[in-house]
Each structure stands twice: as C-alpha cells, then as structure tokens.
Amino acid sequence: MTVRVRFAPSPTGYLHIGSARTALFNYLYARHVGGKFLLRIEDTDLQRSTDESTRSILDGLAWLGFQPDEEIVYQSNNADKHRAAALKLLAEGKAYRDFTPKEEPGDKNVKQAIVERARQQGGDKNLRDNPYRDLSKEESDHRAAAGEPFAIRLKVAETGKTSFEDAVYGLNERSYSETEDLVLLRSDSSPLYNLAVVVDDIEMGITHVIRGQDHINNTHKQILIYEALGEKVPEFAHLPLILAPGGKKLSKRIHGEIVSMTTYRDAGFLAAAFRNFLALLGWSPKTEQEIMTMDELIESFTLEGIHRNNAIFNFDANDKKRWTDDKAIWMNAEYIRTMPLEELIPFAKTELQSNKLWREEYDEDEKAWFEQTVDLIRQRFFTLKDFSNQGRAFFSEDFDYDPAAIEKNLGKEPNLRIWLPELADVLEQTEDFTHDNLQEVVKQFCEAKGTKLGILLNGARVLLTGQGVGPSMLAVLETLGKEKVCMRLRSQVVWNL
RNA sequence: GGUCGGUUCGUCUAGGGGUCUAGGACACCGCCCUUUCACGGCGGCGACACGGGUUCAAAUCCCGUACCGACUACCA
Question: How far is the CA of A177 from the C1' of B72 (A)?
C-alpha cells in the first residue's frame, strides 16, 4: 500500500514555524517511504479564512520546496460530502439531532469561557445527559420536519474507550466518558472540523496522519467517527510542539513576525538551511551529523527519531544579534560559506538585484570577478542580506560607514587621516596590484611611518568597505582595484562625520 | 477543575540497566593563526527536576512529588 500523507493548514494567518515543521516532517516521511505528499487547505471557518493567508502559506511552502504531489484540496469544496456523512450516521442511528438552542457566544473570549465551564463541571461531568440523545426517531423526525433547528451529534457509547498506537507517543487510550457527543453538523448544517477532517482524509486515501501533539484529543474523536463510518483508521504520529523561550506557546499575537516563515525568507535565509534547522527541532538522525542535504534528511528520516518533549525556539527580541534562534543563524551562515559557489551565486545575484546593486557585466565580462568577490566576502556573512549590507561597498560607491568600526579602527591613530591619502599616492604608482606585491608595498609604507601593518590596513578597511571586519585586506585591495582603492583612501567623507 | 503528555548543559540533542569521571552542536569564555575580524584550529565553562523503591549496578525500570505543556467549542 502506498503511503499517503497530507499537510492541512487552516488559512487564518501566515505559515507558522511549527506548521512549516509539520509540513517538513510529512514531506520527509512521504519521500522516505516513497509515498505521496498532499496538501489540503482547511478553509471551513469562513469568518477567519482569507485568500491572503492561503497565498502566504502556499508561498511559504513553495519557498521551502514542498510541492504537493497531487492537486491541492480545498476543504470548503467538500461540504456536501461532509454533510452526507453526518446524515448517513443520523440515518443509521449512530448520531442524533440535538434541538438544544445554539448558545450565543458570551462577551469574554471563547477559550476562557470554556476553561471556566470545564472547571465548574469538575471531574463528575456526565457527557451523556443530553435530553435529545434518546429521543424517539418519530419525534425527532417530526420536530425536524416542523422546521425546528438542530445540530447533529455523534452518539458516543456509554462505556468503552478509544485507543491507538501513536508512532511517536506510543499507546494512547481515552475513556468514552471523557469524550462528549461531539457535534458533526451545526444547526446551520455546516460541518465541523473533526467530521470534515475524517471525511476528507478518507476521500484522499490518507494512510498516515502526522500533525501537532495538540491534536491528540481530536484523534480520539476522529477515531470514533472513522469507526461509526465503518472506515479504516489511519496510522497517527503526533509531533512535539515548538515553544517560545520560557516554554510558552509560540504565538503570532505575542511573538509577532518571528513565527512567520516569510520573515526568514525576507531576512535572507536559505530555504535549505532553514529546513535543515527545522528538521533538527524535535527530530534527531541519531548521528552527530547536523548539516544535512534534503536527500540526506529524506534518507535518514524516521518517525522513531521524533521525540516526545516539546522544543524551545530560542530568541531574544531585545537583542539585535539574537533576533532569532542562534543555531538557525549559525546554520544559515554555515550554508553560505560552505555551499558550492555556483549554487550561491544566483542567490547573491537576486539579493543584489533587489537592492539595485546588480550590473549585467557581472554575468558577462566581469563574471569571474563577481564570482571571486562573492567567494571572498561570503566567509563572514550570516544571511543573504549581508551581500547588500556589509558587502555593499564591493558593488557600489554608495555605502555607509559603520560607526563602531570608525571608532575602533580610525580613532586610535590620528595620523591615519594623513597616512591613508598618502598610501593612496603610493598605491597609485604600484604596477603589480596583486596580493604578494601589495603586501610588500604596504609593509614598506608602514616601516617608513613607524606603524604596524594592522593599524594601517584596518584603518583602510573602514575607508574601503565601511566595515570593521571582513576578509584579508590585501585580497580586498586586489578585488576592489587600484582606482577605487585610491579614490576611497583619499575620501574625506568619513573624517567629517 | 478534569484528561493526557513531558522533564539530560542557557538552547537543540546523543545515550534507553554496567562501556557515563554523561557525548555532539549552537551560544559564551580563553588560547593559537593572522594585519584586524563575526573565518579557521585547539581548549574551557556547562546538564541527568526532586524523593522513594527494584537491582550487585539506575540518566536509563517502577511509584510519588514538583514544575511545564496540550486539550477540554454548534473554532480549526
């Protein structure tokens, strides 16, 4: 039997980092076992679902590289099938009409109201005391025919339990007494989540449901629906959650953009790097290898490697350097400096293009120069953005000087203001503008001035690149070329800041 | 409140009765390399939540406590 899994987000916001990981695990599992990866948009909550969210989620998935193997299913298109399933259960006596008037939502938030109610009920709640549960068929039909509104609820047996063997959490059991007669169809005849999911999963031939651990309770409810429908229950694998620092839920409301996938794309992350990082959050290949290609991830991915405890996505909103998880940043940097240059070039190009720093020559006459330059500057970069920020001076005359670098590298030696333009004069006379010769020239210059090489070159770094850090200065001189080097060394701009 | 689940360095994790004076990665710190640096090399700091059992032996098995989380809807 071919394995079929699905990722089923509801379009009520952007692609959440936790959802992205769920998608990743579904994708990896499908590929590992040679199955199909499907996508279903759960847009049955018309109030909250938006097309914009759907687009954003699709964008996020596309960026990560998870293309579904079959056409995308939109759950709202299947409402008739969901309804038919509920009606079938009603006809078979496995569900009943509940004529209790619909409760109007109170003024406080729903969640809070639910918790309060649950607290009041305490441990001795009886979930089988609905007066309509055992209404005779005649009377039920009669009242329905008379136009009285009703919801359809599943008739859960008095005694017994649901149980399933979770691929991650192991045996899960839940007494029927803990599960209410769940509503299948609202009084406006629209289907509810649990019904819709089960009917769609059956329809799509889903064999393995891989989703967040927050769905474990739903799984018990869904199993009841599968059984009532007389359908085979799929395998389940629940994933630990990704939490915010402090162990709290990672939410859009509190944590903002940090939880959105598009944030990472826009911040200059490589999809491959972020995917790799995400894979290691809640799953382990059980080897010491951490940098893994997609093929390697697919090869080593198993549900057994997923653990049960929630992971914390670490970041500090007050620290600019740690705006997101350290390890994610490190991994992105690692990818940037170690990936094959030819794979990095297109990303660098796109980054420069979107900042109007790209010149067509980089694809033609200056192709070799461009590639060498990218290779040179990538070493200390963290994100693709660095090509247009820190690396800007390599591609444009219009760049900023880092104030910290000015203070550190220029502030210590007042003579630099005189020496650097003098160095320009010397370099202008230098015919062989390559590394080894430049080293000689600069060395001699320093000896003549009685200063250290480091003082001079680091001062030059600020004038030439605006930065305090970067690759070997001799390589920078060679890369920038005589003309730019001399011009920038003579510039008075920085001294007047 | 109830049900269910979890707890190894700050974070991600390995380890599932003896090989654990608990391994790796990120972060942090130090040293080295170098003209500087956020590259690289070497090293350091740093954890089995707590209490009882079981056992010759427990991070690993059992029980309890604490803490954390999820769920508890005519939301998804």
Answer: 13
Q: Is the CB of A284 under 7 A from strand B?
A: yes
Q: Which residues make Cβ contacts (< 8 Å) with residue A183, sequence separation at least 6?
A: A98, A151, A152, A153, A192
A130 is near strand B: CB distance < 7 Å: no
Query: Does nucleic acid strand B have an atom less than 7 angstroms from the CB of A305?
Result: yes
Q: Is the CB of A285 under 7 A from strand B?
A: no
- Find the Å distance, CA of residue A79 to C1' of nucleotide B43: 64
Q: Give residue-wise pLDDT tens across range A322-347.
A: 899 999 999 999 999 999 999 999 99
Instruction: Give the residue from A305, A215, A287 showing the smallest Cα distance to A18.
Output: A215
pLDDT of residue A436: 86
Q: Please say whether the beta carbons of A172 and A219 come within 8 A.
A: yes
Distances (CA, A) of A178 to A134, A193, A237: 19, 19, 22
pLDDT tens digit string along A183-221? 999 999 999 999 999 999 999 999 999 999 999 999 999
Cα A196 to Cα A191: distance, rounded to the nearest angstrom: 6
Asked whether the predicted pLDDT for residue A255 surpasses 70, the reply is yes
Backbone angles phi, psi at A131, to 5 degrees: -65, -20
Calculate mean pLDDT across residues A393-416.
90
Neighbouring C-beta atoms of residue A216, cutoff 10 Å:
16
CA of A111 to C1' of B63 (A): 35
